[in-house]
Amino acid sequence: MVLNVEILENNGIRFLKLYSEAKKILKKADGKKNYKRIAKELKINEKIVSPILKQAKDLGFAERIKPGIYKKITSNLKYIPNKKREKVVDQDLIKKKMVGKDFSFKKEGHLETKNLQKFKDKSEKMARAYMWLYLTENALRSLIRNVLQKEDNWWEKRVNTAIKENVEESKLKEKYFSPKRDDNLEYTHLGQLKEIIVSRRNWSLFLPYLKEKEIKDFESSFKKVMPSRHAIAHCIPLKEKDYKAVEIRFGDVLDMIK
Of 79, 108, 139, which one is at a domain's C-terminal end? Predict the structure, then answer.
């Protein structure tokens, strides 16, 4: 599939948003090293490297040579920015926006700086937790596309009615200025992606692409990760001990995919 320049530029920005070291990972993909070796060389968790390379393929920056091994498309690397643009947080602007709102930490019409710092400290840890959710959901979307898109009208034939109805409701709620979604899967969340895979009509189609062959064990890993998913998706601060659990639980889900 040949992508035009505009799409590649947009995809380049999306790719870099996945992970700050995403481009560094991609540059190591030479068609010979598998993701585990790349992870070891860069000293990055292999559970991060594998989905990053899968996304690189989906976005037009790499080709899959064989399971776990990818080769960068050198001519397209120029469309990936060298650095992710960081937004500078203007604390005074935040205060102006929030003064007068009914927050429990409001004091005499002004926000206490220590509370803003507390949220900022937590936001950095929550951002890493969100990264795991982002990688996992998009890895599952890529898996579903790769398996089901071979069939015409697969969305109607392979997805249950409840999920399709929820997606249609989500579409109706979208504002005119909302980012355009690539397909219906981008309106689904982790639990719905799992339901598509474990459906009786679909499970056998996914088995060749999964390391976990027992459907109960597959569902069990999702059951463990869902509480974290809900907290992260709704911006609910995690407890200190939960941050490590997030990495383990989402990593377990990613490990079930070949």
Answer: 79
